[in-house]
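Sequence in, structure out. Go.
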Amino acid sequence: MATRKTNPTKIDIGISEKDRAKIAEGLSGFLADSYTLYLMTHNFHWNVTGPMFTSLHTMFMTQYTELWGALDEIAERIRALGYPAPGTYSQFAKLASIKEVTGVPAALDMVAHLVTAHEATARTGRNIFPLVDKANDQPTADLLTRRLEVHEKTAWMLRSLLEG
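Output:
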């Protein structure tokens, strides 16, 4: 019986190349938003001051640590779909929907910026779902579902600090 030769670089996972490209493009924007949010959160961790210093410093560290792990997962999904993941500041700046915060905001302004950034990242991820559903891409759907849960819960918790 003859063995069939396969091209090891050809991707045949049941998702068309066109759909994989569109999903990877969407995930690239999601990665850019996630990285921008990571950097913002880490910056705020370093620079927060005031009466809420200890609690915010610790909370921001928990959040940026969680985000750091997510970056790898998103980038690796892009790679599994057969496309290069963006990885430079200039690429992230072009792809991200979140704008850089300049200066050092007051503690509660930091919290407000993070709420806005988590919500923006959730919207970016949610916008990929129609492509993912159409392509029957369950691994990406699972990744997005898990990430949306984190962003929405974190936004809620941060938003709670701004109420009352």
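Check: The chain has six helices and no strands. The domain at 17-162 is CATH 1.20.1260.10 (Ferritin).
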